[in-house]
Give the backbone structure.
Amino acid sequence: MTAAKIIDKAILLLGYDTLKNTGSISGFEQSALTALNTVYADVFYLCNKEGFQEITDASQPVNMPENVVFDIMPYGVAAFLASSQGDSDNQLFFSRIYNLKRKNILKEMTFEDKIPTV
């Protein structure tokens, strides 16, 4: 999925049009891209140790597992976009959803406890 599609899904979740409180599309798009990169970095390092590359263009694909891209990232982007728009009710609502969904990434990882042999 591309960055633009994640941003579009977040905007749809919020019920915004792209001009809400900004006066220009480019200002809103920059805020959206910043929000996306913040969330992308957050979930990237939950799944990987290194290799993060920031998204510089909304047409770029987001290389994360499908469940992260479709089910987690739009809620985080929505939370950060709401915050940038001064929409505290939506920011709180989507932050809670995002954090609950983000916890599932850690649950899916398996940790193996081994006692060393001597």
Remarks:
- The radius of gyration is 16 Å.
- Residues 25-47 form the longest helix (23 residues).
- The CA atoms of residues 19 and 26 lie 9 Å apart.
